[in-house]
Amino acid sequence: MEVSRRRLLIGTVSTLALAVGLPASFPALSAENAAVGTDAEAKKLLLRMVRVVYPHDQFPDAPYERTVDAIIAAGNKTPGQKLMFAAGIGGLRAASFGNMDEAKATEYCRGIEQSAFFGLVRSTAVVALYNDQEVWKILKYEGPSFDQGGYIDRGFNDLDWLPDPRITEKG
Amino acid sequence: MNTIAQDESAVVIIGSGAGGGTMAYELTKAGIPCVVLEAGKHFSINDWVNDEWEAFGQMAWLDTRTTSGSWRVARDFSGLPTWLVKAVGGTTTHWAGATPRFLDYEFKALSTYGEIEGATLLDWPLDLEEMVPYYNAAEKAIGSTHVHGRPPLPANNNYKVFANGAERVGYTRYATGPYGTNAEPYDDRPGSIQDGFNFQGDKNGSKWSTLVREIPRALKTGLCDLRPQSHAVKITHDASGKADAVLYVDKDGNLQRQAAKVVCVAGNSIETPRLLLLSDSNQFPNGLANGSDQVGRNYMRHMTGSMYAWFEKPVHMYRGETMAGIIKDEVQNDPSRGFVGGYYMETLALGPAFLSSFIEPGAWGRDFTKMMDAYCNMAGMWLVGEDMPQASNRVTLSDTARDQWDLPAPNVHFDDHPNDVAMRTYAYEKAEALYKSVGAIGTHRTPPYPSTHNLGTCRMSANPEDGVVDKWGRAHDVPNLFVSDGSVMTTGAAANPTLTIVALAIRQAEFLAGELKKGNL
User: CA B471, B473, B476, B479 torsion: positive or negative?
Assistant: First the structure.
């Protein structure tokens, strides 16, 4: 279930990337090409970066880790992406990004905001993180509703801090 | 289903959405066989999913497109100028359901507003009085709430905030409709179960779309040959200049030809002008029906914007019918507000998946995440008003980008007119005041999304030099070529366009059936 959901998500992200105008595909990579960003240190840096870009104190690590997986998949799509992605991670490492406090780390991200690397991380994360079912639960969004009979008996009109308004025009 | 031979000259309808789907049903009901060429797949409501991104991947028109101009969509979503559907039923599968009529003055934009610098305003060659019977027919087809005896939808949470705010700032004309989703069973469709996901197709089938009403009924007549995954790429003509066939690409990528005695183009306001431009020939070097050089021009997308506001207490805006809330007080021409034309305020809700991408595209950091953290306590509305037609807002064929069939992709160029900007700023202020009156602790001005209301580009005009089609939607230059979608709109009015597209299609089908029976085509 989790694997298929993740695969779906990665597919969705790439569809979006295509839709918003990221580069079209290069020739497919051969399987023996090593993936970029999959070592523990790189993952830790990316996780820190996503937490700085989309900081939610109440979110546990798990949805951020799934977001990092989506970023790694996106960053390895093409040789060009790989080169750019590797350079971006190298930049985080060289700047000791992992040791920065949130203010410093935010400042670093502002500095690279226009880069392709930041664009890849942010545009992938904004889709992956907020499409995560664990995140939905924390934000109190209930997700699919049709299978549960909609909200007709589950609170579509349960707001009680304002009076009930009329629903037709007067007269 | 009826099969029509490819060498039999038939009525060929291109597209199966609000315009094309309505044409297919109205014509087959009148005994006229039709071929319907639809670029997308034929899904059923059981195929729809209650998941914003998955549904987007399933439904959205994602063929290559490019953008230019100063509109923000060109920066944030450069390859996605619109948010339209590629499937049987077209964008009626995605529409929310608001069905206001155009007002009389909105058919007379030039006379009412006068000349506006930079705008190509024109009066429609028809008026509200002429449209009333067709609006009645369209409202009954759609099953609009609040009219013709259809009951209103109940207030959902997002509406409660919206309507209470409306009352407190002094608006009087607010209601939960008219809205194209059943409050109770009607026309063989069930009443709403308040399940949301109107934009994702509506699995319950309470929402009107041509997928659930017109297309199945057209097929039932035995006169409709529906061909999904059949992407029209060129309309050809004979030596006399009349359309004689439509070339289309089938699902296997093969080029096919359907002979035609009449062609009705209903591909929405990007693909319709693109197809006419792709249909150039020695006789029509600037594209078919383009003697006036108006094909693709005067592209309109409505003045839009959204306001999201958050409160101390929960709202759960996503529960229930997405757009079942409308305020009409600002729809009037009152230039003392600093702009001509008017706008509606309508409830709107997105899930976290879409809200994160659209509430402020490109934003990140704590200012952004504090809005997402407020999701449960958030209310939302859409602002939709008349935008100014401009000759330079235009769909053209790209010199460089090509689609999956190796044909020139459409480029969509758009710049806001100063009137659009003034109206948007004013509307944001009014929306903020509304939400603050019921205790908003924060508000955000969300910029326009990729366009769902796409209008103009083949506009109706009394004078052939000013537009592409006449008052029946018939091309000025090609007597058996009709445009049957929102492309024909001379000006955009403030209203959500689907009702008017359906009403115009019912009217056009009646005219076309009459002409065919008289032997005039």
Answer: negative
